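--- STAGE predict ---
source: upstream dedup step, 1 unique chain passed
mode: sequence only
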Amino acid sequence: MLRPPRSRSATTSSIPLTVLRSYQLEMPARSKKPSRRAQTALFQFIQKAAERRENLLDLTEIAETSKREADEANEQLAKAEQEYNNMIQEREAEYIAKGDTEGLEWFRRMRAELDQIDELEQTKKESEAENVRLRNEIARLEEEAERLKSIRGET
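--- STAGE serialize ---
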């Protein structure tokens, strides 16, 4: 039977017994049990495998939760967009019902200006992100140039 090294305080309870039994060590013909070194190496391998599996399961759970949250957020976004469009249609219908063509034109002009402001803000964000990307690229290229200069200077 494999036993964990005494110096490690690992959680052996997380390693299923079937996993421990499934790893068979090749023992020398003259020996009845694997060496202490082989036992320790096998236990450490199994322990690392169990830790990585637990980590993988945790990350999978996080990914699934994030996917559900993203799906819910997309549903809420679609609902909010639909409510916004309905509100605009209702407002336009009010102006039309009153026969207020001037008010309807004003409302549509204001909506167009608000849409334009939103587009400009989005363009500004994209430009700022592009500027940051370009600054990072310039810094990387300057570092590369310095590295190449130092290599040329040394040789």
